[in-house]
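Quick one: structure for this chain?
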Amino acid sequence: MIRREVLQGLGALALWPGMARAAEGVPFSEEMLDALAREVAARPYAERPRVPKEWRELSYDQYRAIRFDTARAFWAGTESTLEFDLFPPGLYFPHSVEVNMVEDGIARRVPFDMTLYEKHEIVPTDLPVDDRLGYSGVRLRAEIEKPGKFQEYAVFQGASYFRVIARDLVYGLSARGLAVNTAAPEGEEFPDFTRFWVEKPAPGARLHRIHALMESPSVTGMYHFTLDPHGDSADVDVRCTLWPRVELANVGIAPLTSMFYFDATMRDRFNDFRPAVHDSDGLAILNGNGEMLWRPLANPRHLQVSSFVDDGPQGFGLAQRSRRYSDFHDLEAMYHRRPSLWITPGEDWGRGAVTLVEIPTDKEIFDNIVAYWRPRDPLAAGSEHAFTYRMAWTAEIPEQKPVAKVLETRIGRGFPHNHHLLVTIDFAPHAALPEDYDDLVIYVNSNRFETSPGIVQRNPETGGPRLAFSFDPGDVEVAEIRAQLFHEGRGVTEVWLYRWTA
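Got it. Here's what it folds into:
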């Protein structure tokens, strides 16, 4: 028998305003979606009901044993260039989302259907099922490598998180719709994508479109994603409109989330057989002044927030520049195949700061890096704000400025009885560099301690210049360091920025 609490849970789902009856179709347009978002924003925020307890109490192995039958993917066997399947709710996803299919200008809700899944024997047989149950996310598939072979390339699941992979890469860092109060003392708020609309592309269409309504106590948003997964870079154009319910002072536009455990800047803290462990190794910024900045990531002992103040940023992103297997020696995680992600604003974002949040972690399973654009002026309650940007999910972020990029940073004691720390920065070879590296001019500076003048040598493995300098931290707890190489009065490398902590 179905227990009373199960009936109550499914009844609550039926009453949620988002859950229209599947048989009903409504005319679809982006204007309709924006009007819906304005309507949701105008009324008080309503907490979504949770799925029945039996779903929430599934073990990790039980949840993973409920697998979508990809042979039954939506639009499989048609002329569509897009197929998609759906994740079940439960475990880490106590709230379901509504998914709508858009065909021939009509949107229809996809009812929950347990027969779409293959279940291992460890899955409980008495899970309460109702077509109003909903799903936890959407997985998109396309013909990435060859015609007729559909491979997954994007997943939207959990809060407003989504991930995309390009050809020959594996999943790594994530993106989010919005960051609210990240690293704030009062705690972070995680807005949810609560409803999705997946458009069926025309036969032969290269681009795929998915739309999402975002809801939270503080803000409502409507997001329009246009995805092109077919090139070496998987590109996503994002258009979003936000309607804050309260003043949003600490808000992040185009937030990226990643993991950084350790690398050669902090080997003394980690007893691990691998030389490095991370999904991303640095934050790249092309600021409004045209400077190309590189900030190596850190796993600090204490939470730290860095703000790179700017006016009209030209782009930013989290990169994985370590691309050799020997950089990690990890046959399972394949960190050398994790994607980089570059954000290009679609309009002038004005004044604000690219913000980097680095959270201490003692395990590589936790995402501890967040990067986003924070507008200088708060978003006022009751106002409307639109942003557009392009995301390039790729192995190598395309060159944004003709300068030599940073390949690797190493920090440690050069000699066992010396109190000085040695820093080496390897730059890639580049046409902007002079043939004779002796002609390079070194700039190294710190706001808290003296550094050595530095030397430049040619790295025999990379062919590029290696800048090395040292410093004695003494009693200093935190210091900012900046370094760059010049030739004939012009910067010919990225600006290397680092926050050293004791």
